[in-house]
Amino acid sequence: MNAVPQPSRRRFLKAGAVLGGGLVIGFVIPGARRYALAAQAAASAAAPFVPNAFLRIGEDDSVTVLIAHSEMGQGVWTGLAMLVAEELDADWSKIRVEHAPAAPAYAHTAFGQQMTGGSTSTWSEFDRYRQAGATARQLLVAAAAQRFGVAEADIRTENGVVVAGAQRARYGELAAEAAKLPAPKAAPALKDAKDWKIIGKPTKRLDSPEKITGRAKFGMDVQFEGLLTAVVARAPVFGGKVKSFDAAAAKAVPGVRDVVQVPSGVAVVADHYWAAKQGRDALKVEWDLGPNAGLDTAQLREEFRKLAATPGAVAAQAGDAAAALAKAGKTLDAEYNTPYLAHAPMEPLNCTVKIDGDGCEIWTGTQFQTGDQHAAAGILGLKPEQVQIHTMFLGGGFGRRATTNSDFVSEAVQVAKAAGKPVKTVWSREDDVRGGYYRPMYLQQARIAVDAQGYPVAWQHRLVGQSIIGGTPFEALMVKNGVDATSVEGVSDSPYLKDIPDHRVELHSPKTGIPVLWWRSVGHSYNAFVMESLIDELAHAAKKDPVEYRRALLKSHPRHLAALNLAAEKAGWSTPAAQGRGRGVAVHESFGSFLAQIAEVSVENGAIRVHRVVCAIDCGLAVNPEGVRAQMESGIAFGLGAALHSALSFQDGRVQQSNYHDYQVLRINEMPQVDVHIVPSTERMGGAGEPGTAPIAPAVANAVFALTGQRLRELPLRLKA
C-alpha cells in the first residue's frame, strides 16, 4: 500500500474564493496546508480559486453543499447539509448536495484522512460545516449592506433572503457581489442553540427522492462508451497464488476481450458482466494454495481456548483480581464464542477505472478516499492529485469499503492497467463472502466473584481473537503494549468494571492468515454480547430483576442509567410480558452514545422470534432525530441478522458459505416492531450509525433465557433441543 498521510489533529486552515459566478465558502480544514497553498498559487495566476471544502450559492438561489463523507444510507447528505443551512438561514427547498472529490481539503477533522467510519461524520463536522454556513451568511449580509446603503447591523436573513426594512434580495441575486468581498478576518459567531430552526428538528432525507426515482447513481450504475467489465478468479484459499493458467476456453466465450494476470489472480475482461463471469467459469487455473490450506474454524477455536488458559497482554487492571478470586466464596465461570462474519452489503463490490496519459479516474462507492487515491497513484506511478475519485452512493458498506490496503480499488486499477482499457471490475457476492474481509472470531472467558448480595467484587476476563489494527497504518495510534483498543472496547472500559476494585482484562491476538476488518460497531459487536450476557447471568444468580440489578451497578453512571430507565419505562418492564413471551435487556455505550434495548421474544417451531425492540439512546445532540431513529432501526436489523443467523466457517482453508441462502441475514418478515426513544441531552455528541447494532444480541439472548431458561453463550443463537 502506498503511504497515506498519517492522522493529525493539529493542522487547520480557513479560506474563501470565487468559483463559477457564485459564492464559495471554505471550511476549517485540518491537514490541508499544502493544498491551500496550491489553490492560492492558482488564484494568483488568475485561475479560478477552488477552496478546500465549500458550499456554493448559485445565481438560481440553489445552495450546494459538498459532503466530505460517503453516503451509504446513514444520512450524512441530510445531517451535514442541515448544519450549513441552519447558520446560513437558507431556504431548505433550495439545498443541493454533492459528494466532494477526493482531496486533502476534505480530510476528517480527527483522523486527517478523507474517510467515513466510526460513527464520526456528524460530530466531526459539527463546527466546520456550521462555520461555512455562517461565513456565507456574513458575506451576503455585507454585500446587501453595500447594495442597500445600510449598516450590516440593520440587516437580517431568513429563508434564503436578505432583508433591510422594505428592501429584500435573494441570496442568488447577491452571490456574485458577495464573492468579490474579502473573507472575514475573524470566525463568525454561531447561533445559540435556542435560535436553531433546523438543527434538532426531524427532517426528511435529501437522498431519498434520488433513490426512490432511480436517479441516484451507485458504483454499479457507472457506464460509458468503451467501458468493459471484468471479474477476477482469486485463489480459493487466502494467501494462495497462481501457478499457471490456460485462457483458451475463457477467450472462446462470446464477448470476452482479454484475460490478464494481476496480483490478486486472473481477470477475465469482457463486453459485459455475464460474458466475464462465463469466461471465468471456463478459465483453467492451477493454484499454489500456500500455507493456509489447512485452516479450520473448529480447530482454531480449540487453539484459542488453549491460549485463553495462559496470561495475555493486559488491557485493564485494578487491584489484584487473582488474589480476590482465590479467596472468593462464590464465583461465576463462563466462556462465550462469536464467529467470523462477512459484511455482505446489498451492492456487491465494484470499481470502474479509466487510465489515460494525464492521470486516472475512478468511480466507486468507497469509505476511504485518501487511501484509495494513494494506492492507485502508487500502482500507476502518479501523484495522488492525478487520481480523480468520483464517490458514488454506497449500497451498504459496514466497513467493507474501507480497507487499509484499498483491496478492491487497487485490484481494479491493476486490471485496467493490464487491460489497457477502461474497465469496471465487479465482485459477485460469492466473491466477497468467500474472498473478502471479516469480523474476527473471538473466544472469551470470564471468572467473576460476587458478594453476599450477588454483586461483582472481582472480575478476570480474557479475550482471544485477531487484531484488525495490527499491520495497518493505524497500528501506532491504536495498538499499545500489545493491546488493540478495538479488540477490547466495551470490556476494558466497561462501566461495570470501573466500579469493581479488583479486575483484570487480558488479550491474546493470534495471527491466523484470515483477513479481518472492522464490521459495524467493531469490537462492541461481540463484546456487548458477552458483557451484557454476563451481567444478566449475575442478576439471575442473585435472584434479582435484571433491570434493577443494572440500576444498582450503574448508579454512578447517569447517562447509562437514563437510557436504561427510559427503555424500561417505554417497554412496560414493570408489567409481565405477554403469555409465551420473554423480555431481555442490555445497556451499552459505544462511539460516544449510550443505549439501552429491551427485546421481546417468543419461540416458534423451535426458532427464536423477536416481536418488539424498545431502544433508548442518548447520543448528545440529535442533529436530525429522524435520522437517529432510522439508524437505530437499521443497526438493530443488522445486529439481529448476526444474532439469529449469520456465521462464517472455514474448512480446508475455504470459506463454506457463499451468499444469502447460506450466509443468512435478517429477512423482512423477521423484522420486529422497533420503538426508538431519544434521551434529551446537551452532552457531547456521539455517533448513531453503529451503536444500535451492539446491544441487540445480548438483549435477545437475555430474553431467551427469561423465556426458556436456556443461557446461550454463542452466536448465532441456537436453542437446544
For this entry, give a set of tags:
3 domains, Aldehyde Oxidoreductase, domain 4, 721 residues, 20 helices, five-stranded mixed sheet
**Structure summary, number of beta strands:** 30
Q: Identify the CATH class of the largest domain.
A: Alpha Beta
Find the CATH topology of the largest domain.
Aldehyde Oxidoreductase, domain 4
Radius of gyration: 27 Å
Helical content band: 25-40%
Please tell me the overall pLDDT. 92
Describe the structure.
With 721 residues, the protein is α+β, with helices and mostly antiparallel strands. The protein has three domains: 12-213, Aldehyde oxidase/xanthine dehydrogenase, molybdopterin binding domain (Aldehyde Oxidoreductase, domain 4); 219-290 and 349-426, Aldehyde Oxidoreductase, domain 4, CATH 3.30.365.10; 297-340 and 439-708, Aldehyde oxidase/xanthine dehydrogenase, molybdopterin binding domain (Aldehyde Oxidoreductase, domain 4, 2-Layer Sandwich). It has a seven-stranded mixed beta sheet. It has a five-stranded mixed beta sheet with strand order 1-2-3-4-5. The longest helix is centred in the first third of the chain and has 28 residues, at 121-148. The radius of gyration is 27 Å and the shape is globular.
